[in-house]
UniProtKB/TrEMBL annotation:
Residues 36-201, 249-413 form the TIR domain. Residues 18-32 have a biased composition (Low complexity). InterPro entries: Apaf_helical, C-JID, Disease_R_plants, Leu-rich_rpt_3, LRR_dom_sf, NB-ARC, P-loop_NTPase, TIR_dom. Keywords: Hydrolase, Leucine-rich repeat, NAD, Plant defense, Repeat. Its EC number is 3.2.2.6. This is ADP-ribosyl cyclase/cyclic ADP-ribose hydrolase. The gene is LOC125421233. It comes from the Eukaryota. Residues 1-33 are annotated as: Disordered. PROSITE patterns: TIR. It is an enzyme of class 3 (hydrolase).
């Protein structure tokens, strides 16, 4: 029989597989191997690798008992291959082809390669080694191979057929997945090859027997399954077990740890667990950690690792090397897309985030040894890494933590396959170093990975923006809730916008978005957009957003993107063959390599999927654990599903789930999508499903993702879930477990046609209205979850609710009581907001599992049940129950109660108990309960009996002088928020200064309050507006606050700190500036962003900072007080308008400049119109020589806040907040501050500006402060900053 290579026509190159598939199938199923004289034959180019790589490889093979043939002589030019060499080729089982740069120069090497392929027998193998040459160079004969063949064609003009055979042989062998040296160690490379040879030469008789039995079946399937061509052979392509060459990664994981803390125990066990699961892991050799600089080898290892595990132990920060590693790890995360998984091992995450305890001690030493910039980078790196999704040892066993880490890493590695190229491509479009506004459209076919790539990118870059918002599945959400709901969701991401903002229509929403976002650096993600009106409503123009903003849109419609002005379109392409093979192997085999003898079948799946990740994952998951016969039958069936490829492969994945995971999938698809992951877990656990295991199964098959603690389902998977539920309800009602569509629910409730299979009913559309009969639930004897938000009427009453209910959520429940026989022993949550309930139940009923009662705004509720029968209650929320008169005294015995909310229960009189033991209480809102009897005794008991309260609101509770216990500072040591506004006391207890964790103090509308004592050192926000009698506030020299400090004294006309309010504001500012002086004895808290602590900087750090350029200071001071004049301290003033300019001296010293101070006199006219938004703003924009400096900053006032006269707004902004924008400080001639407002009722009358220098720091007090929003209700004023 002539060799097929020789018969092929010129110019048509068959693959190696086509050559093998034409070999005759084995005639028997014998498991015995043919007799081979040699285990291995090495083909190589002598002058390239002899005495070097090949010799070392030969020695290693022989040393391990592998019989190897390597010819030691170089043939003379023109001499034919000897019979001995041909015999060695014929009698060798495995061939290692070392393809080097000059391999094609040698006619002998090329003839040898042809003979190897011509004489290849069943159960033989070829392993190509690409030594300092790229596989594509060999495959297509480029570069040095092209030069060699040019010479051959001249020398052998009359032997065209021979040259073609050489080319075919090179192409064929280069198509076999082999080993690529790249830049790794030759010693390690040879070790890998030897291990692979051992594996190939091992006993495979059982697998071969099984394979032989399938040959006849495969040949019969050839005619019906186009994926197969020719008979199947025992030979399949070799796949390298850790083939990262296609992606630029050499390792799966880089382990960063402090060796002396963890290496002998935890890290060793983790390393071996990762290794057992086939995860290639780089672990630092401590001998490399010598000297003061990190070695290039480690830098390269970090860059070449897909994921870094950072094990933050107690002494991690004591190692400068570890900290430098961490900085580089995070840089690679930002630039390359590498993932990072922090592990907190024996250390509190807060200690890492704020560098306290052992971390604080370590940094105190670092500040003495290292320069300012390096230490600041280390601090920033620790802060950033603590904000990433992490794992914490806590009270878990190490074994459980390691199992969790391995599962997480495996899942993330699967998600990263093919991601690097796409992320780099997207980042090139984003170009974050440019300060323009960009709209990028990601488009591609369904299932190609647009949403996945977008989410990974979002997590990588979100920390670089002031406002971040991800609107998932815009297509479906706009259909369900409308575009105005999406606009509201976007607006609520802004701190100055009220939570309950109302958008009248789309045009109104567009105006609000444009007004609120035009000054902010925004990252906005619009996922799965399908219509132009969605884009026009949410991101209609780049001018809506501030400088540096990035808007990313994902869609399947390229034409849609083209219709939007200024969009940069980025196509998301399918995976290449190598990436697709790796992704499929992850899901089909649980590792990134294919099992032996499955290679051809895997190739057909990869070809079928055509680079679509969703298809690869679905088929891989379905085939996982099946034997080779089952694979062949399954693949033949899959062929017929090509018409609806995505949905059918998703259905295959769904069918592979166990029953509990299927139920969890349907629950999430119907009513838990886009919910907080903790809430999803609560509902699933409540319904008796293992939420953690089930969600992990769905993550594994890419049905759901969890990003920023939000569970999101793939749109195609969600649609499939809806179809499954609807099909069950219509065609198989006996098996229907979820009623979700309103038509299906109406059918069941009107005809009483439900079955015991129904577990959940969810009617989530508040616009729907219906009338149900009294027996609507009679046949639903196994119902676990009932959630109704629609307006349902029960004109006949309600006879029955299932006793099996575990979660009952019925908004606007229309009856006065629940059915008398309703006693669900397993009930966990009872939420009936805005209901007509007068009393929950009239008899004593035990609800041992009940954790939450929420009857908010049930205006007819008059009394609560006896809580003795709900011993495990954790949440009692009765806000707005305006008819509630009494709370049963047994509430005081609820030792597990965490939240007590009785806000605005205006008729409540009795909240008494014999003894109060609320040791778990963390949040207590009693604001608006102005009729409570014996309120002073209640507060005293509450303070004594609830030592762990974090937030306490007693606003408008008619508290008189002495009602606040004198020992409040000693008892509530964990208190962070204290809101006691709208009360009648005239002073506060002095012990308040002992509330060492207090962040917010609310005193608004305390009209009789005359003085405020010294406040605790860490108070962050003081709201004292409309305290008309206030005349003494603690001396600023004694109040120590953090770097950001906010004081609101709106309408406090009697405040007399320094005779008038104008000097009050200036006194506070000077005291604040004094906090930056180096003789502070304690740490200072710096904050770059609102709501976030960045780092705790020690005395030595401040000293170093001031001794250098003072250019690293960061912070802001705000105060609003009544006033009509700009203080003279502001040397540059404009008494006639809203802008002011200051010239800068030509020879100024940048080292002494610390920031700018601004002052504005403004008035709010009381003529609000309906067109006015819920708040009005004053914005300040800085200009340097008429060039805009960054984004605006300012404050907003709610429209229900009445300013009775002119007021002063004074703000200081540190140089660190704008330093990056002032790099040419010494070249700037003038600075202009322009104060703007778009409201007709707010007027800026005067303004002042001053550049602040070191000598302006007159007072020297420690400050520790960070701005926060109101914790309980609208403060009337909100400050914001867009500084970066």
């Amino acid at each position: 029989m002539a060799n097929p290579l020789m018969k092929s026509k010129q110019g048509k190159f068959p693959t190696y597989q086509s050559h093998l598939s034409s070999l005759p199938p084995s005639s028997s199923s014998s498991s015995s191997n043919p007799d081979f004289e040699y285990d291995v034959f090495i083909s190589f180019r002598g002058k390239d690798t002899r005495k070097r790589f090949t010799t070392h490889l030969y020695s290693s093979l022989e040393g391990n008992g592998i019989s190897t043939f390597m010819d030691d002589e170089e043939l003379e030019t023109g001499k034919a291959i000897s019979p001995e060499l041909l015999r060695a080729i014929k009698n060798s089982r495995l061939f290692i082809i070392v393809l080097s740069e000059n391999y094609a120069d040698s006619r002998w090497c090329l003839d040898e390669l042809v003979h190897i392929i011509e004489n290849l027998r069943p159960k033989s193998y070829i392993i190509p080694i690409f030594y300092d040459v790229d596989p594509t160079v060999v495959r297509h004969q480029k570069n040095s191979y092209a030069i060699a063949f040019s010479d051959h064609e001249k020398k052998y003009k009359d032997q065209v057929d021979k040259i073609n055979r050489w080319r075919l042989a090179l192409t064929a062998v280069a198509n076999i997945s082999g080993w690529h040296l790249n830049d790794q160690s030759e010693v390690q490379f040879i070790e890998y090859i030897v291990k692979e040879v051992f594996r190939k030469l091992g006993d495979t008789s059982r697998l071969l027997d099984e394979l032989d039995t399938t040959i006849e079946l495969v040949n019969r399937l050839k005619g019906t399954y186009k994926g197969f061509s020719g008979a199947i052979s025992h030979e399949f392509r070799l796949r390298k077990s850790d083939d990262h060459r296609q992606h630029g990664f050499r390792y799966d994981v880089f382990l960063s740890c402090r060796g002396e803390n963890t290496r002998n125990h935890f890290v060793d066990n983790l390393y071996h667990a990762l290794h057992r699961h086939g995860i290639a892991t780089f672990r630092v050799d401590e001998t490399l950690r010598m000297g003061s600089e990190i070695v290039p080898q480690l830098l390269q290892a970090i860059k070449n690792s897909k994921l870094s595990i950072v094990i933050l132990s107690r002494n991690y920060a004591s190692s400068a090397w570890c900290l430098e590693e961490l900085v580089h790890i995070l840089e690679c995360r930002k630039k390359v897309g590498n993932q990072v998984l922090p592990i907190f091992y024996g250390v509190d995450p807060n200690a890492v985030r704020h560098q306290t305890d052992s971390y604080g001690e370590a940094f105190a030493e670092h500040e003495e040894r290292f320069n300012l910039e390096k230490v600041k980078k280390w601090r920033d790196a620790l802060r950033k890494v603590t904000n990433l999704t992490s794992r914490h040892l806590d009270k878990r066993h190490e074994v459980d933590l390691i199992d969790d880490i391995v599962r997480t890493v495996s899942r993330q590695l699967r998600a990263l396959v093919g991601m690097a190229y796409q992320l780099n491509k997207l980042n090139s479009y984003l170009d974050s170093d440019v300060n323009d506004v960009r709209i990028i459209g990601l488009w591609g076919v369904a299932g190609i990975g647009k949403t996945t790539i977008m989410e990974v990118n979002y997590n990588m870059i979100s920390e670089n923006f002031e406002v971040c918002c991800l609107l998932a599945n815009v297509k479906e959400e706009s259909l369900r809730f409308g575009l105005t709901a999406l606009q509201q969701q976007l607006l609520r991401r802004l701190p100055e916008v009220p939570e309950k903002i109302s958008v009248r229509d789309v045009q109104h929403g567009i105006g609000l978005i444009r007004d609120h976002f035009c000054s902010k650096r925004v990252l906005l993600i619009l996922d799965n957009v399908d219509k132009l009106d969605q884009l026009e409503a949410l991101a209609g123009d780049s001018s809506w957003f501030g400088s540096g903003s990035r808007i990313i849109i994902t869609t399947r419609d390229k034409n849609l993107l083209a219709s939007l002005k200024g969009v940069k379109m980025c196509e998301i392409e399918g995976l290449n063959h190598g990436e697709a093979s790796e992704l499929f192997s992850f899901h089909a085999f649980g590792q990134n390599q294919q099992l032996e003898h499955y290679d051809m079948l895997c190739r057909h799946v990869v070809e079928y999927a055509n680079g679509n990740p969703l298809t690869l994952k679905g088929i891989g998951r379905f085939l996982f654990g099946k034997n080779i016969n089952e694979w062949i039958y399954s693949l033949n069936n899959i062929k017929s599903l090509r018409k609806n490829q995505i949905f059918n492969t998703l259905r295959i994945s769904y069918d592979s789930l166990d029953e509990e995971s299927k139920a969890i999938f349907l629950y999430i698809s119907c009513f838990l999508d886009s919910k907080n992951v903790d809430r999803v877990s609560e509902v699933l656990d409540c319904c008796g499903y293992p939420s953690k295991i089930g969600m992990e199964s769905l993550i594994d098959i890419s049905f759901i993702t969890v990003s920023n603690n939000i569970v999101r389902m793939h749109p195609f998977a969600q649609k499939m879930g809806w179809k499954i539920v609807h099909r069950e309800c219509t065609s198989k009602p006996v098996k229907c477990r979820i009623l979700w569509h309103h038509r299906d629910i109406t059918e069941v409730t009107s005809r009483n046609s439900g079955t015991e299979s129904v577990e959940a009913i969810v009617l989530d559309n508040p616009e729907l209205e219906g009338h149900w009969n009294r027996k609507a639930f009679t046949s639903l004897c196994n119902l676990k979850l009932l959630s109704i938000r629609s307006n349902i009427h029960l004109p006949e009453g309600l006879e029955y609710l299932p006793q099996t209910l575990r979660l009952l959520k019925w908004r606007r429940y229309p009856l006065k009581s629940l059915p008398p026989d309703f006693c669900p022993s397993q009930l966990v949550e009872l939420k009936m907001c805005h209901s007509q309930i007068e009393q929950l139940w009239w008899e004593e009923k035990l609800f041992n599992d009940l954790k939450c009662i929420n009857l908010s705004h049930s205006r007819n509720l008059t009394k609560t049940p006896d809580f003795t029968w709900t011993p495990n209650l954790e949440k009692l929320i009765l806000e707005g129950c305006t008819s509630l008169v009494e709370v049963h005294p047994s509430f005081g015995t609820l030792k597990r109660l965490r939240i007590l909310n009785l806000k605005d229960c205006i008729s409540l009189r009795s909240l008494q108990c014999a003894a109060m033991s609320l040791e778990s209480l963390q949040i207590c809102f009693l604001s608006g309960c102005s009729k409570l009897e014996h309120i002073d005794q209640l507060v005293a008991r509450l303070v004594l009996g609830s030592p762990n309260i974090l937030k306490l609101s007693l606003r408008n509770c008619d508290l008189e002088e002495g009602a606040i216990p004198s020992d409040i500072g000693c008892c509530l040591t964990s208190l962070e928020v204290l809101d006691i506004g709208r009360n009648k006391f005239s002073s506060l207890p002095k012990s308040i200064r002992q509330l060492n964790k207090l962040k917010f103090l609310g005193l608004a509308h305390c009209n009789q309050l005359k003085s405020v004592p010294e406040l605790p050192s860490n108070v962050e926000y003081v709201e004292a507006r409309d305290c008309s009698s206030l005349h003494t506030f603690s001396n600023p020299s004694n109040v120590r606050t953090s770097i950001d400090f906010v004081l609101s004294f709106i309408n406090c006309f009697n405040l007399a700190q320094n005779k008038d309010c104008r000097s009050t504001a200036l006194t506070w500012l000077k005291a604040y500036l004094g906090s930056l002086m180096p003789d502070n004895q304690n740490q200072v808290h710096f904050s770059l962003y609102m709501y976030m602590y960045l780092s705790l900087i020690s005395l030595s750090y401040i000293q170093t900072c001031l001794s250098q350029e003072l250019s690293q200071l960061s912070g802001r001071f705000d105060i609003i007080v009544p006033g009509t004049r700009i203080p003279e301290w502001f040397r540059h003033q404009n008494n006639m308008g809203p802008s002011v300019t200051i010239p800068l001296p030509p020879n100024r010293n940048n080292r002494n400049w610390i920031g700018f101070a601004f002052c504005v006199v403004f008035i709010v006219h009381q003529n609000y119109s309906e067109e006015e938004s819920s708040s009005i703003e004053i914005n300040c924009q800085l200009y340097a020589d008429e060039s805009r400096i960054g984004n605006r900053f300012g404050f907003c006032i709610s429209n229900n806040t009445a300013l009775k006269s002119d007021h002063l707004w004074l703000r200081y902004v540190s140089n660190g907040s704008i330093g990056k924008r002032m790099l040419r400080w010494n070249r700037i001639g003038q600075i202009t501050a322009s104060f703007e407002t778009e409201s007709h009722c707010l007027e800026v009358k005067k303004c002042g500006l001053r550049a602040v220098y070191k000598q302006d720091m007159e007072e020297k007090n420690k400050r520790k402060f960070q701005y926060i929003c109101s914790p309980t209700e609208d403060l009337g004023v909100g400050f914001f900053s867009n500084d970066k």
